[in-house]
Description:
This protein is α/β, with parallel strands linked by helices. About 25% of the residues lie in helices and about 25% in strands. The longest helix has 14 residues, at about 190-200.
Amino acid sequence: xxxxxxxxxxxxxxxxxxxxxxxxxxxxxxxxxxxxxxxxxxxxxxxxxxxxxxxxxxxxxxxxxxxxxxxxxxxxxxxxxxxxxxxxxxxxxxxxxxxxxxxxxxxxxxxxxxxxxxxxxxxxxxxxxxxxxxxxxxxxxxxxxxxxxxxxxxxxxxxxxxxxxxxxxxxxxxxxxxxxxxxxxxxxxxxxxxxxxxxxxxxxxxxxxxxxxxxxxxxxxxxxxxxxxxx
Length: 231
């Protein structure tokens, strides 16, 4: 994984991700894949320079900008300015919250976005204002974008915020992002059961979390299952 660049997760450059800084010392992850009519960008990052947009354009034109939940909308305005023909989407459950948080952006329900057959999208139950899940079939196996349910932070943030990450077991490494779960999850049992079923039916080869670099391991399914049990 390299910072400040688009990391390619499959052989033909169809699935990519990039980390971005959304506030001092805090990073989130942008996930992109080739959709039906162009690139679909999930959690479009803030504080990106022109080179980041130009490098992504080498893989295709951006047609859709997805806020995966009510929090990952900070880059929408900048991306809409750069890609004026792109349409902004969010989970149907999230649209009302975003109308208050980002009133300058018009979001369409994500279930209106046409996707290729090899891309699966769903909104897991149990979240207060929605979260989205994507799975893109690749040669290695399914590549998941799991939103803010998981994090993969290489180190614990500095104190005092870092104390919360340590106490909640949200960092370092591939973890259940328990801090986000406390804020976003309404029904822990519903979320856990849905995700465990997804792990059984479509075990991922790679998980791209909402925060931190993509994570890949031989025992990834077992590791993800163990983290979900902490929910």
